[in-house]
């Protein structure tokens, strides 16, 4: 291990997800020295709302950092840089002095579903957003949320001086600097072909031109944009003056932590979202994936995502009355003992949202009297895996990638789930050894910024550790071929019913 003036250097990585914040102090080999977590609960004050206090987000982050620094036993002066990753999309409005203007709206919020539907009904405007920004916006996208606020709470927008993303408001509290990076900015009104804010995208969203006053300066993720302020140092235990980089969208950080931020590598994450991203330099766009700029504007991740992973898994556990971790593990073991080719219910995991729009809902099909909770649980896992299949089939129409595919996220801790993914994708799957790939990636980028590492690509190749690959079983090929066909057929069959139900619901609300 190299040293600085006879002293070891350490790096802090912070990963702020939808419901929890993790802070990890790493040594110069990016081995975790101490890890701390804090929950960052989501408030749901009304139907379709998913928001949180910005102050509560900062408190959770500051507490996690403070705990990690204290538990590490490291002199804070030896933590030479801080990197932050955060969940993307949503909307965080702040004043010119950094004060929060209303609560943070998260990516899981769908209050702007009507604004999203209006945009979707106008092919010209929608094409502009897709081709310029690289993605079709969800109801939780910043552009749709801004339009909703202008219609329902215009005074809040008037009071704001900047719109930021999750990791930006954390960095703002640490450094006092209002800014964002390319990987988050491209989820709103950034033109990915020029890597600059776009008046054309603003107009396509139906937003007024003067909304551009809210757009912050955009940096590369590894740019040092500020240093830890004295007040933040006292709150977190960090040293005043510690460099802080711009940070990045958590998918970018996780890809680095999985050793996959190299063109031609595919990484899957089964966490709050099912995230399926292939690193590329190609600008191909399609409604089924997001072509997002990465830590530099010349690199992209084409990622196809949906909120169909752990929210669906957690929901099925609640439905089955499973509340304790020991009960969950016993049921997973029972599901793993089932014959891999045995019939189980076919479950569409759209209990929160879907990549097909707001109309599809969670669906359980083919359930029989002899099915046990283990059958239902395996059906739920297969449904989540089928979404990996759906997303990667779309990506495969334009991109290629090397084997093995890298898998991360909470569900990757289940050997059953890993085997199901390998069987479904007919590809070897390797699981990253790190429990906190996002914090690892954020720390690595910060380390490159201050000279601890030479480059992101070299450091991730040398320092990321992955488990031996799990290969698909020969006997599962027919089962999964038939299952994918059944899944596609069920999606097609349910379409008219979902549309009819959505129409009835709108009529009732009217």
Overall description:
Helix content is 40%, strand content 18%. The termini are far apart. α10 packs across α15. It folds into two domains: 10-250, ATPase, nucleotide binding domain (Nucleotidyltransferase, domain 5, 2-Layer Sandwich); 260-431, ATPase, nucleotide binding domain (Nucleotidyltransferase, domain 5, 2-Layer Sandwich), CATH 3.30.420.40. The radius of gyration is 22 Å and the shape is globular. The chain has 17 helices and 23 strands. The strands form eight sheets. It has a six-stranded mixed β-sheet, with helices on both faces. A five-stranded mixed β-sheet has the order 3-2-1-5-15, with helices on both faces. It has a two-stranded antiparallel sheet with strand order 4-7. A hairpin with a 5-residue loop joins β2 and β3. 53% of the residues are buried. The mean pLDDT is 94. It has helices at residues 54-72, 113-120, 123-133, 142-152, 154-159, 166-175, 182-185, 199-204, 230-236, 250-257, 310-319, 325-337, 373-396, 415-425, 437-449, 456-463, 477-509; strands at residues 10-16, 20-26, 32-39, 51-52, 79-86, 92-94, 104-105, 162-164, 180-181, 190-191, 196-197, 218-219, 224-227, 243-245, 248-249, 266-270, 274-280, 290-293, 300-306, 346-348, 363-365, 405-408, 429-431. By secondary structure, the chain is an alpha/beta fold.
